[in-house]
Amino acid sequence: MTIDRSIIGSRTPEHSVDVERGRLRFFARATGQPDPVYADPTAARAAGHPDIPVPPTFLFCLDLDNPDRGRFLADLGVDIRTVLHGGQAFEYRAQAYAGDRLTFSTEVTDVYSKKGGALEFIVRTTRVTRGGEPIATLTGTTVVRDPKAAK
């Protein structure tokens, strides 16, 4: 399957997520984070934070709350069984905290192929804001494998 480069610049609908303390605590436990700042509001305040800080990579989890997250690939006609995670990167501008309402705005920023078209790469950039203030930029690469390509 060839991904049409004309999708570069296309955007998916924005979505907003409220950062919940319970999810931050769960993430801290799941990732083995021993620092109480990431689970206890009192410890967070004692460390100078207004509430529990959002740890690195958790923004990716919040982006998965997009109610239409599977729609993008479906609209392209991509069979989900051919999709691979190609990578992700994070660039932080400000700290987010429990209680924040974050908005995620995603745009396709590149499409390219490798191995004679057997692998198509879709790069999407997501800007995360809080009340218009930039919080982070997430860059994710999705790989679409062409099942008809020679192995």
Automatic annotation (TrEMBL):
Species assigned in the record: Kitasatospora paranensis
InterPro entries cross-referenced by the UniProt entry: FAS1-like_DH_region (IPR039569), HadA-like (IPR016709), HotDog_dom_sf (IPR029069)
Protein name in the entry: MaoC family dehydratase N-terminal domain-containing protein
Domain of life: Bacteria
Domain FAS1-like dehydratase: 7-137
